Each structure stands twice: as structure tokens, then as C-alpha cells.
């Protein structure tokens, strides 16, 4: 993955393609319109707490094969997600603004193997992936703030060394 | 109505939680052509607050502000669930896990996180510091290196049948399995 400092539109497109976390909708949204994402996030935050997904104990049970709970949550979510995306593609469903729905493919790099293994280690240590970190903060768990600050430092460090790491 | 709220207070079953999380995928696509993925927020926050002239943080993070609105919702939702829909009973934990943890002096099973490991006081213990600081670092570093986390790869990527996301998901699980079963017992010794 090479990223140029040049900020011409072509280079930016290239950067977008290698970073699936960047979205593509061109239309700007107003602050009020952005609140709809906050509402969906709220639903998600409630589920994180109520289904105990943010519990360190549930994560340990998962990795020790002592409980089906987390496998059930992830499995159901994936099944519903796969069905939904298949329906969207089959019936060419548009966004509420009439745009064509675009899902950027996730390109493969060997960094995914190293990064995923490292994240897996961190997930089992903290009991939190990036979503639940924010839920821990909302739930008032002090550990959430420490884990969040450390995760930011981790992401920043990745950015600092990105070009030197094997991808 | 009262019975319904009482039901909401007990822990939600996996199929209900899983279905809601799965439905977030099409919901985000349809309302705004957005792909689900939460770890990118850590990058956006770095880009907004500490770009330090690093190429990886030189992009217009404001275009991704919807995701920060989404995360603000997660914080609010978790707050509401904790304060108004809290489970009145103690969390149910596998007996074998309790025995294992008790042997390491972790005996507080009343909350979502064990207080012996994840309170601010435990930050001064070697194991608490390793778990929170190093663990958090690995989450932030690993997810960006992997270009996604549980939401971006395991849920969004698999929903779109991306094989690189399957590779990533298998590696997440493998990393977690190794940590919990082989490395964590070592770390927990250092109280």
C-alpha cells in the first residue's frame, strides 16, 4: 500500500480504494441529517450493553468455547447482513436519496493477517473491539477511557510506521 | 407496558442482538450509502486531533463525520441502557471461567468487567496496566493494520462476501484464542 503526498484528485481516489474505511457518498449532509446516524448508534449502544457484548467475561467465554452467546450474536448478525446485502444487490435497491448503493471491496494485503492477529490479542485482553470501547465509555466504565486512549495511540503509531510495515 | 420494560431489563438473547446488529448494515447503506465499520473512527480522531504531518492522517476526515455521529450515538445508547435498562441481577458467568478467574484472585463478578483488572486502581498493578494499556494499543494498532475490525470485516466484509474479511475474521479469532488460553494465564499472575 503506497500513499502519495500528492493531493490531486486521482491520488485521492487511489487512497480511497486502499482504505475501505473511507466512504464514497458525494452528497454533503447537514448536521441535522447526520443525527440519523446518532439514532442508529444509540440503538447499537443499547444492544452492546443489554446483550452483554461489552462484557469482558463474555469475550473470555467465547475464546474458551464456554458459551455460545457471542457466536450466536456474530453468526446471526452475519447471516442477516449477508441476506440484506444480497437483497439490495438483487433488487438494485437505492438509497433514500436515489443514489446507487456502493460497497467498496476490501482488498487483501498480508498486513490483514498480522494486524488481525494483533487485534485478536488485544480483543481478548481488553474484552473490547473498537465499537464496545465507546460503549464502555457510555456505560461509565473507567477502563473504557484508558483503553480508548491506548487504542488511539495504537492507531497513531500504525500511521507513523505505516510505510515501514509489511503489507 | 411495565412487563415489556421488565423484559428489556433482563439480558437480551443472542438472536435478538445479532439481528439488530445485522440490520444496521442495510440501514446505513440505505439511509446514506455508508458502510458499517467502527475502527476507522480511531483514525478519524487521530486525523482530526493529532495529524502530526503524517501521510496516513492527511485526508479530509470531515467527510467521514457521519461515523463520529454514529459513535456518539453508541456512547449515548450505552449510557441509557446502563442507567435506565440495567439488569437488576448479577451477570451469569460460566462456572468453569469463574473457577479459573478465582484462582487468579479475580472474584468480583457483579459487573460487566472484573473490577480487579479494569478499575482505575488496577492500573497501578502490572496485570491491569498490561491489559488496559497494551491491550488497547493492540486494538488500535491491529485494527488499522488489518484495515478493519469486528464490524468492518467480520460483519460488513462478510456480509459483502469479501474473502479478505474472512481471512481477517479467522485471524481475529485465532489471536483471541491464543491470548485467552495461553498468554492471559501468564499475565494474570502479575498482580
Throw out a few tags for this protein.
heterodimer; A: 167 residues; mainly alpha; 7 helices; 63% helix; 0% strand; disordered N terminus; B: 191 residues; 9 helices; globular
Protein architecture, described:
The complex is a heterodimer of chains A (167) and B (191). With 167 residues, chain A is an all-alpha fold. Helix content of chain A is 63%, strand content 0%. Chain A contains 7 helices and no strands. Chain A has helices spanning 9-18, 31-50, 56-63, 69-90, 111-126, 130-138, 142-161. The longest helix of chain A is centred in the middle third of the chain and has 22 residues, at 69-90. The termini of chain A are close together. With 191 residues, chain B is mainly alpha-helical. Chain B contains 9 helices and no strands. In chain B, α3 (40-49) crosses α4 and α8 (150-159) runs antiparallel to α9 (163-187). The model of chain B has no long low-confidence stretch (mean pLDDT 94).
List the helices and strands and how they pair.
The complex is a heterodimer of chains A (about 170) and B (about 190).
Chain A: H1 9-18, H2 31-50, H3 56-63, H4 69-90, H5 111-126, H6 130-138, H7 142-161
Chain B: H1 2-9, H2 14-32, H3 40-49, H4 65-84, H5 95-102, H6 115-118, H7 126-145, H8 150-159, H9 163-187
Helix pairs in contact in B: 3-4, 8-9
- The count of DSSP E runs of length 2 or more, i.e. the number of strands of chain A, is 0
Largest interface, C-beta within 8 A: A-B, 128 and 133 residues
- Give the uncertain stretches of chain A in residue-range form: 1-18
Strand content of chain B: under 5%
Order of helices and strands of chain A: HHHHHHH
Order of helices and strands of chain B: HHHHHHHHH
Round the mean pLDDT of chain A to the nearest integer and report it. Answer: 87
Rounded Rg of chain A: 19 Å
Number of helices of chain A: 7
Amino acid at each position: 500500500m503506497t500513499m502519495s503526498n500528492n493531493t490531486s484528485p486521482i491520488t485521492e481516489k487511489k487512497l480511497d480504494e486502499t482504505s475501505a474505511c473511507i466512504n464514497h457518498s458525494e452528497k454533503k449532509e447537514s448536521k441535522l441529517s447526520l443525527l440519523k446516524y446518532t439514532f442508529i448508534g444509540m440503538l447499537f449502544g443499547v444492544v452492546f450493553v443489554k446483550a452483554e457484548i461489552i462484557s469482558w467475561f463474555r469475550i473470555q467465554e467465547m475464546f474458551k468455547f464456554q458459551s455460545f452467546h457471542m457466536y450466536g450474536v456474530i453468526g446471526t448478525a452475519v447471516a442477516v447482513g449477508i441476506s440484506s446485502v444480497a437483497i439490495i444487490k438483487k433488487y438494485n435497491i437505492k438509497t433514500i436519496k436515489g443514489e446507487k448503493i456502493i460497497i467498496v471491496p476490501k482488498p487483501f494485503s498480508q498486513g490483514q493477517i498480522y494486524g488481525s492477529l494483533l487485534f485478536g490479542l488485544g480483543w481478548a485482553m481488553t474484552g473490547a473491539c473498537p465499537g464496545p470501547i465507546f460503549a464502555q465509555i457510555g456505560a461509565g466504565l473507567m477502563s473504557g477511557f484508558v483503553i480508548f486512549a491506548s487504542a488511539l495511540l495504537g492507531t497513531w503509531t500504525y500511521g507513523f510506521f505505516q510505510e515501514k510495515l509489511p503489507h | 407496558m411495565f412487563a415489556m420494560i421488565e423484559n428489556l431489563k433482563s439480558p437480551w438473547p443472542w438472536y435478538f442482538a445479532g439481528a439488530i446488529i445485522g440490520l444496521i448494515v442495510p440501514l446505513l447503506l440505505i439511509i446514506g450509502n455508508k458502510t458499517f465499520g467502527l475502527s476507522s473512527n480511531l483514525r478519524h480522531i487521530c486525523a482530526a486531533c493529532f495529524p502530526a504531518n503524517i501521510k496516513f492522517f492527511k485526508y479530509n476526515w470531515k467527510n467521514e463525520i457521519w461515523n463520529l455521529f454514529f459513535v456518539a450515538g453508541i456512547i449515548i445508547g450505552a449510557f441509557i441502557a446502563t442507567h435506565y435498562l440495567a439488569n437488576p441481577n448479577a451477570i451469569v458467568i460460566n462456572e468453569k471461567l469463574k473457577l479459573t478467574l478465582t484462582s487468579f484472585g479475580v472474584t468480583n463478578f457483579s459487573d460487566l468487567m472484573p473490577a480487579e483488572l479494569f478499575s482505575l486502581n488496577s492500573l497501578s498493578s502490572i496485570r491491569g496496566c498490561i491489559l488496559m494499556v497494551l491491550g488497547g494499543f493492540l486494538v488500535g494498532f491491529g485494527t488499522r493494520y488489518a484495515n478493519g475490525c469486528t464490524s468492518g470485516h467480520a460483519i460488513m466484509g462478510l456480509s459483502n462476501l469479501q474473502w479478505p474479511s474472512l481471512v481477517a475474521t479467522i485471524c481475529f479469532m485465532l489471536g483471541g484464542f491464543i491470548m485467552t488460553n495461553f498468554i492471559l494465564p501468564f499475565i494474570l499472575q502479575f498482580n
